[in-house]
Amino acid sequence: MIDAINRGDYASAVSHISQVDNWDVDIELDLNYGIPFLLYADSLEVDSALIDSAAIYIGKQLEEIAITEFANGNYEAAVQQYDILLGIYTHFIGTENLYVAKTYSMVGVILCAMGDYENAEIILSESVKIWKTLPSLLHLEYLYALLMLSESSVRQKKYEIAEQYYLASLALAPKLCRLDSETYLSILGNVGSLYLSMENFSKAEEYLVDSIGVKLDMLKRNDSIAYHEFYSTHMNNLGYLYRYKGMYANALSCFLEEKNSRKISNDTLSLEYVVVLHNIGALYSDMYDHNVAEQYCVDALKCYNSISSDTLSLEYLHILSTLGDINTYKRNYLKAEMLYLMSIKIYNSISNDPLELAKLYSQLGILY
Length: 368
What we know:
Elements: H1 2-6, H2 10-15, H3 31-43, H4 48-71, H5 75-92, H6 98-113, H7 117-131, H8 140-155, H9 159-172, H10 182-197, H11 201-221, H12 225-244, H13 248-264, H14 271-286, H15 290-307, H16 314-329, H17 333-350, H18 354-366
Helix pairs in contact: 3-4, 4-5, 5-6, 6-7, 6-8, 7-8, 8-9, 9-10, 10-11, 10-12, 11-12, 12-13, 13-14, 14-15, 14-16, 15-16, 16-17, 17-18
């Protein structure tokens, strides 16, 4: 049958469509002929159940192409394939079914990867709407849709909406994956990070400590780079949490743990390593140990310069601003003034947040 489709002999293929459950998988389907075949069969009013099966088979071929494009980072090509796939599914088997829901979910995932969070939210919301009409929600694609909706909401600072989706995913995840799996632990950590952004410190601590506890057990069993990355990220979140709560000793312990974990996994030439060095320096500054604070911030600046020449970034600005604070405390006023002026210049180039800019001007004003 596939051989007949590839020859463009649609009449012969239609005569064998009743054997659709016995596709000759050894013959590769040419999709340039597969989709026109479906339209031809549909025009002859062939049994709809048989056409549905043919559409699902051809759809799977398209899906494999889309997944490959996505895996290779060809996001736009992947979205194009999924758009064709959606056209096939909605035309031949309807709009509210497992295949359409899965496809919408994957398009949303790709749009998030592209940073198009507004359109991702629209597509993923449609996906979730369809999922809720189906007999079962126990599908990883539904979980991914919830997680990506959470992510897109966080990126748009819609924290209350993100909370709803994260809690829904947290309730679903144990039914689909182990409690010590990377997926489940990531959700725990992301929920903790969300509550940190919402300044709900008690809930943030609850979820972050839970995720760290399980990750520690995982690290004992599997000393891989991937697990160190997960552990580092959540130690970073815990460090921020304890710093906000004024628990500086706890925060310092977390940031030092993160720094050590990143060194073990050879992650010392990255923005994440720059950030942890700066966090430790800023924390020592909070603790009035300005000499140690300055050394960590200088190391952060050296590390940043070794991996990037971009001086118009928030990471670079934050280091300069902290060094300005440190030099103010050490009464190196001319150096502090230079650092603050550099920070203000950078901030005017990359952001329009009046509160942050006012803070920088306030720090500069202290010097005069």
